[in-house]
Design goal:
about 90 residues, mainly alpha, elongated
């Protein structure tokens, strides 16, 4: 995760940082692009904009990015809410 962030700082303007991560045709590249997209994006739409706008296996990288985004924002929030409700009972 740290390597992904170090290799590709937050894009400015129209830069395409995923170019330095590969095209996503092999597992390591797809995973790195998906993780990077989920970590740097500020919105759900931006996750897919970053993950899918490259010349490689964009459908796979976007799917991976969506899963990471879901874990990061949806699952963690849901788990916290479940624990809060359970504590009240």
């Amino acid at each position: 995760m740290r390597k992904s962030m170090e290799r590709c700082p937050r894009p400015k303007g129209t830069a395409r940082p995923t170019l330095t991560l590969g095209e996503g045709w092999v597992g390591q590249e797809a995973l790195t692009i998906g993780l990077y997209s989920a970590l740097v994006a500020k919105s759900f739409r931006e996750v897919f904009s970053i993950a899918a706008n490259h010349d490689g296996d964009s459908d796979s990288t976007a799917a991976i990015a969506g899963q990471f985004y879901g874990v990061r924002y949806v699952w963690i929030s849901l788990t916290w809410r479940i624990r809060s409700v359970s504590a009240l009972e």
